[in-house]
Amino acid sequence: MLNIALFGPPGAGKGTQSKLLVNKYNLAYISTGNILRKEVEKNSELGQQVKEIIKKGGLVSDEIIVQIIEDELRTNTEKVNGFLFDGFPRTTVQAYILEGLLLKMNTELHCMLSLEVPKENLIKRMTARAEKENRPDDTQEVIKYRLEEYENKTKPVINFYKEKGNYRAVNGVGSLEDVHNSLVSHIDKVLQKIWFNVVLLGPPGSGKGTQGHKLAEEFNLTYISTGSLLRKEIAKGTEMGKSAETYITKGDIVPDEIAIKIIEREINKHPESRGFIFKGFPRTIVQAYILDGLLRKRNSSLSLVIDLNVPTLESFRRLTNRGKSGQGRVYDIDTDTIIRRLENYEKRSQKVYGYYGKKHHVVKVDGIGSEDEIYKRLCETIKQALKRAR
C-alpha cells in the first residue's frame, strides 16, 4: 500500500497534480476540500455546519475532519493501492490524527510531498481561478486570509514530517508535466523502499517450498520457511530445536512463541531486503495476527496472499510418494502422520483464509501441473501485484 500526502499552500496546484498521481498509481483520492464542498452543495447537515467556515477561508474543526476522513478511508479500500491525501493534514494535530487512522488500517503515510510556490505566483493563480470557477473561497480577502492561515497553522506540519524523515520539497513552478515528473521521481524512490511481502498458502504437499525458493530468487525477495528454519535448529541440537522437535515429528503446529522468535530473527538478519515470501506461516488465525504485528513493527504490511490450490487427495499422493522416495521428511513416512497434518490444515486454514479474505485479495493459483507450469502462473500473479503496487 502506498499512502501520500500532497502538501503546499492554496493555489500550489495540489488538486491538478493529485488527479494525475491518482491515475498513475491507482490511489483513492481524499480531498477534504472537495468533500466539504459537496456537502455544502447538498445542503446536508454537515454542509450547513461548514458553509460559513469555508466562506471565510477558515479551518473546519478536527472532530468533523476525523469523521469525513474515516468514512472515506472505510469506503475506498477496495481495488486501490493506497491513498492520496489533498488538504489533509493541515495542522500538527491533524498529522497525529492521520497517524492514528492509518495505524488502525495497519499502514502508514509513506511520504509528504510539498509543492513549493512563491507567494506572488499563488495570488496570481488563485485570482485567475476565482474569475474562471467563481469559487467563494477565492476572493482577494479570503485569499489573503488563507495564505496567512497556511503560514501560521499549516506550515508547522512540515517539521512534523521532517522529523519522521518522510518530507520532500518539490518545486511547484514550471509546466504541468515538469512538476508531475518531479513528484513521480520522489514517489518512485519511496516505492523502492517499501517491502513487498507475500504469504504463500496451501496444504502440505502443494509445492510451496519448491516454488517459494524459486520465486524469492526471481523477484529478489527473502524466503522465510518456518519449517526449514526449525529443521535446521533440530539438526544443530539447539534449545529451540529440541522444543520444536516433538511437535514437528507428530505433524503438529509448533507453539507460537517459537515461531515468532525464529521469524523475527530471520527478518532482522535481512535489513536490506526488498520484502519477504513467507511459507508455512501463518497456519492459524492467531499466527495471521502475529505476522501482521511483526510487519507493522517494521512499518510494513502484507502485499499479496497466494493460495496454491491443490486437492486433498493430490496432496496425500505427493506426500506419500515423497516419503517413499527416500527424500521425505520424518513426518512424510508415516501415513497416519500425513493424514493428521492434512486434517490439521483443513481445520485451521478456513479461519486463516477468512481473515485474509477480509483484509486482502487472496489470489488462487492452480497448483496442478508441472513444476514449470505452476511456477509461470505464480510469477504472473506476483508480476501483476507488483505492477499494481509500483
Automatic annotation (TrEMBL):
A biological process term (GO) from this entry:
AMP salvage
- Extract the PROSITE patterns matched here: ADENYLATE_KINASE (PS00113)
Sample GO molecular function, one term: AMP kinase activity
**One of the record's GO cellular component terms:** cytoplasm
Q: What positions does the entry give for AMP binding?
A: 32, 37, 58-60, 87-90, 94, 135, 146, 226, 231, 280-283, 287, 329, 341
Asked whether the keyword Ribosomal protein is assigned, the reply is no
In this chain, the stretch annotated as NMP covers: 31-60, 225-254
**Predominant location:** cytoplasm
Pathway where this protein functions: Purine metabolism; AMP biosynthesis via salvage pathway; AMP from ADP: step 1/1
Q: Which domain of life is it from?
A: Bacteria
Q: Which Gene3D superfamilies match?
A: P-loop containing nucleotide triphosphate hydrolases
> Where is the protein localized?
Cytoplasm
Q: What is its EC number?
A: 2.7.4.3
Return the broad EC class. transferase
Tell me the keywords, alphabetical order.
Answer: ATP-binding, Cytoplasm, Kinase, Nucleotide biosynthesis, Nucleotide-binding, Transferase
What does the UniProt function comment say about this protein?
Catalyzes the reversible transfer of the terminal phosphate group between ATP and AMP. Plays an important role in cellular energy homeostasis and in adenine nucleotide metabolism.
As for family, the record states: Belongs to the adenylate kinase family.
Q: Tell me the protein's name.
A: Adenylate kinase
